[in-house]
Structure formats: structure tokens, C-alpha cells
């Protein structure tokens, strides 16, 4: 059985929606997802870099993110044909461990928690495929990297790209 | 550069010493490491299985474990010749994430936290070597498993075995 490793933020967990909403509320701004095309919020507002990061190091930030559209159904279906591991660079936000774990238990209870991986450098991941929104994780990955479209990666070229979970489904099950 | 993945409990962190001390104190017992040869505390005292586990799910249990003899020096030396990752099955004890992270930051601050991995099923680990006290992790591991002697594994046969960190040093650096 081949193995698919799947990232969390901006792939199965809707990071931007909450992050932007909090930022817009607190700074009376109206930044949209389109404004993030090819960039990141911290690059758009560099003078607020620390404040922008502070939202994320809040231990509960990751606990109530929305699940990305269709991904529960598609991952459930994939799990009948592939080994599924959730591989998140949680070491970048060590305050997030518990929230990320509880979120996965709530929304992906059909996966074993033995298949959750909190790491940093994803070259440690042994899998046939890695679905991720950060191209840097593909550099030393020995399997096939699959770039999940996120605002910040929209201009990246030269990768197998999927734009949503229906496209993931088509890639693996058609 | 070849890569060595290293387990935490009973390999770099002295799990048994603290666990036994707490148990002996609370139950007025005098169980020693030798009593654990080829077994586990929960198998020696099955009627106290839940209590024995309760020590470990206490969120701070892993925070103040002793560092195993010589392992800091040897890992530091190994890290000049190998990529080192710390790979612990923390998903078995989700309450332990923060304590394990802080323990690693305290005692192995010469390693990047991007090289810490909290997982469950270690077949996800891509490394050339895995130093671990649990033989089950070698079953689907694609590299060379190296069994670090612990009381419970003392009767396991057919594995490359190291008894202490000087033997690890000799294996990799001689």
C-alpha cells in the first residue's frame, strides 16, 4: 500500500481565514485572500510582523480552524487505498501541539493518532507522496511532492499542483 | 551525510529510574531495574496497570527525567558526522508534548528543534539508522535498526544491540 503524507495548515486546516479575520478586526483592515497572492501577511505588513506572529503562538489558535472543503471525505476515501499520515511542521509553533492534536482527533477521528507526525524538517518523512503548500518541503523529499495551492504559493512553477481536494481525489483515484 | 534517528525514553531519557522511584514510594515497594528484566512494571503489577500509566500521562512526568549517561557528549560528536533526528513516539502520550519539547531544548540545545519528531508509527521515519529500545519500530523501518538495551528488551535476539552510549560511539565512529 502506497503512502500519502499530508500537511495541515492551508491544506486541511484553513489557517488564512482565521488569521486574516483576527488581523482585520484588530487593525481595522480589510485584507483579503487575493491580497495574499504570492506573498504573506507578514510581508504585506512588515511593521506588524511580531503582532502577526503572536496570533499563531497563542496556544489555542489552531484549535478551531475550519476544515478545508471536501478534505474529510476525500481523505477518508483515500485511506481505503493508501496509508495516510498527517505531517505538520508543528515544531515551528511548539505552543500549538495540543491544539493541533485535539483538532486532528476531532476532525479526522477515522485516522489513527499513530499516523500523526509533528516535525520540523520534513525530509525525515518517508512517504510516496507529500501534499503540502510549502515547496521548501519538497527539496529533500524522496517521494513525489504535490503542491496544494495556497495564496502564498500561487506563482510557484514546476511542481505537480492541485487546487482543491477534488483535484487531489482525481490525482489519486482516477 | 547519513542520518541517525534516535528515540527518547530509555535511550536518551532515563524513564525507568523516575517511574520506579514514584511507584516504589507510593506503593511501599522495592522493585529494581533487575526485576524489570524481560518485562514491564505493568506486567509485574497488572492489578495496578492504570495507576502505573497515570504517572506517565501526568503532563510534567517527562520534564525532569535524567539524561542517560554519556549520551549528550556522544550525540554531539555524532552530529559532526551524521544528521541527527530525535524521533519519539509521543503520540502514545499526547499530554507529554510540551514536557518532551522543553526537555530536548534544555538538554540537546545543540540540535535544531526542526530535527525533533513526535510521531507514533515510526515507519514514517526516513533515516539510515534508528536507535531505539522497542524492536517493534524496526519491523517496517527501511534502515538499520539498532537496539538500545533496556530492561524490557534484554532477551530480544537477532538485532544489532548497543548496551550504552559508549557502544553507540564505537559503532558509528570507529
Q: Could you give me the name of the CATH homologous superfamily of the largest domain in chain A? A: HAD superfamily/HAD-like
Taken from the alpha-carbon principal axes, the silhouette of chain A is: globular
Radius of gyration of chain A equals 16 Å
Provide a count of the helices of chain A. Answer: 6
Instruction: Name the helix and strand elements of chain A from N-terminus to C-terminus, one letter apiece.
Output: EEHHHEHEHEEEEH
Question: What is the topology?
Answer:
The structure is a homodimer of 174-residue chains.
Chain A (H helix, E strand, L loop, with lengths): L2 E4 L6 E2 H13 L13 H4 L4 H9 L8 E2 L3 H8 L4 E6 L8 H11 L8 E3 L10 E4 L11 E5 L11 E3 L2 H9 L1
Parallel strand pairs in A: 1-4, 1-6, 4-5, 6-7, 7-8
Antiparallel strand pairs in A: 2-3
Helix pairs in contact in A: 4-6
What does this 3D model show about the protein?
The structure is a homodimer of 174-residue chains. The first copy, chain A, is 31% helix and 17% strand. Chain A is of the alpha/beta class. Chain A has two domains: 121 residues, Rossmann fold (3-Layer(aba) Sandwich); 49 residues, no CATH class. The model of chain A has no long low-confidence stretch (mean pLDDT 97).
Amino acid at each position: 500500500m502506497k503512502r500519502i503524507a499530508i500537511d495541515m495548515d492551508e491544506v486541511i486546516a484553513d489557517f488564512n481565514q482565521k488569521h486574516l479575520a483576527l488581523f482585520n478586526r484588530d487593525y481595522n483592515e480589510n485584507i483579503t485572500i487575493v491580497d495574499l497572492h504570492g506573498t504573506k501577511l507578514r510581508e504585506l505588513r512588515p511593521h506588524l510582523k511580531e503582532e502577526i506572529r503572536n496570533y499563531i503562538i497563542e496556544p489555542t489558535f489552531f484549535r478551531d480552524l475550519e476544515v478545508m472543503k471536501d478534505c474529510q471525505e476525500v481523505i477518508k476515501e483515500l485511506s481505503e487505498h493508501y496509508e495516510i499520515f498527517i505531517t505538520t511542521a508543528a515544531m515551528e509553533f511548539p505552543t500549538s501541539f495540543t491544539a493541533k492534536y485535539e483538532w486532528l482527533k476531532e476532525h479526522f477521528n477515522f485516522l489513527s493518532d499513530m499516523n500523526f507526525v509533528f516535525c520540523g524538517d520534513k525530509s525525515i518523512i518517508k512517504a510516496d507522496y507529500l501534499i503540502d503548500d510549502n515547496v521548501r518541503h519538497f527539496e529533500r523529499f524522496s517521494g513525489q511532492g504535490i503542491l496544494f495551492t495556497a495564496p502564498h504559493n500561487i506563482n510557484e512553477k514546476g511542481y505537480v499542483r492541485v487546487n482543491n481536494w477534488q483535484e487531489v481525489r482525481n490525482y489519486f483515484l482516477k
